[in-house]
Design goal:
The chain is 35% helix and 26% strand. The chain is an alpha/beta fold. Pfam families: GFO_IDH_MocA, GFO_IDH_MocA_C3.
């Protein structure tokens, strides 16, 4: 099989998950690391034994690079995706794929015309608990879905924002809690229920009001396409990063994700179905352990034209649509209809 040469743009915190995932794949080689910070970038490139570029556009001129991973601030995603696709590369981008619906439309048009694939990292869909929950719902033994509630409480200090000034700024992050941390939870909710038809939400800032321009807390009521209701709450004001609590209430029982374990609860019975612990038994990262699986699925699609087993631009746009709708609903104080 042909070796696929890869470049990673951005040497920030998340890029290490991509490096670790690439190391597990056969016939894939990290060829280049790109970062505007030449000191940090050169050090990382030396450690990875790959080339270093300070300008991603120079890297895109390298015909030997097949796949580009984008691990940069949100505001840079659109231009980098468009340039990489135009250069004939396959692209794997961290969420959110764009800053707003307008950018999503531009990226979608480019992806439809490109020779390369565009994948987006929604790794939490591939957590063992997420896959088992979706399987249980598809089999229908619990009956009709009635509601989903999700409760996400994480901690983000002032240092988190000051060490990376693009965070918490509307012009560079596009918001704060919703578009960065809680977008994964919204994605899981809509993915499990087949989409959202309307919602009403509120965003506000408390503990981080003097630090970020965006929200540090949010809540929303969602109406799903399958007729169920959604209750969503998220905040970055907790003192630790607690595991996601997500509960699906059905006619004949409940699926409950709690402390990284999935439970099936019916009258008189409670059984554990799955957990997200790593194979070596170490504690699960609150980021989830799905990066390796998401990247593996994407490279499988690159090697097998026609495969759809990865998150494409149309799927990735759904959660960003919900984020935008909650922002708009909070501003207008009214229900927002969602066009799926």
């Amino acid at each position: 099989m042909t070796i696929l040469n890869t470049a990673i743009i951005g040497g920030g915190a998340i890029h290490g998950c991509h490096v670790n995932a690439l190391r597990q794949l056969p016939n894939v080689a990290l060829r280049a690391l790109v970062d505007i910070d030449s000191v940090k970038g050169l050090k990382l490139a030396m450690n990875y034994q790959c080339r270093f570029y300070q300008d991603y556009r120079e890297m895109l001129l390298d015909d030997g690079i097949d796949v580009v991973h984008i691990c940069t601030p949100h505001v840079e995603h659109k231009d980098m995706i468009l340039a990489a696709l135009a250069a004939g590369k396959h692209v794997f981008c961290e969420k959110p794929v764009g800053m707003n619906g307008g950018e999503i439309r531009d990226i979608t048009r480019a992806a439809e015309q490109a020779s390369g694939l565009l994948g987006v990292c929604y790794q939490n869909r591939l957590n063992p608990t997420s896959l088992r929950m979706r399987k249980e719902l598809a089999e229908g033994s619990l009956g009709k879905m009635l509601s989903i509630r999700a409760f996400l409480t994480w901690s983000r200090s002032g240092a988190y924002y000051t060490e990376s000034p693009w965070r918490g700024r509307l012009a560079t992050e596009g918001g704060s809690l919703l578009i960065n941390q809680a977008i994964h939870t919204l994605d899981l909710m809509q993915w499990l229920a087949g989409g959202v038809t309307r919602l009403k939400g509120v965003v506000d800032s408390g503990e981080l009001a003097d630090i970020t321009e965006g929200e540090d807390s949010a809540m929303a009521t969602l109406h799903f396409a399958n007729g169920a209701r959604g209750l969503f709450y998220a905040s970055n004001c907790h003192t630790t990063d607690s595991p996601l609590l997500l509960e699906v209430h059905c006619e004949r029982g409940t699926l409950r994700l709690n402390d990284n374990a999935l439970w099936r609860v019916t009258p008189g019975e409670r059984s554990r179905l799955e957990n997200d612990a790593s194979p070596d038994g170490s504690a699960k990262s609150y980021w989830g352990l799905g990066h390796q699986q998401a990247i593996r699925h994407f490279y499988h699609a690159v090697n097998n034209p026609g495969s759809t087993d990865y998150t494409d631009i149309r799927e990735a746009g759904k959660s960003l649509t919900l984020v935008e709708a909650i922002y708009r609903s909070s501003q207008l104080r009214q229900w927002i209809n969602i066009n799926n």
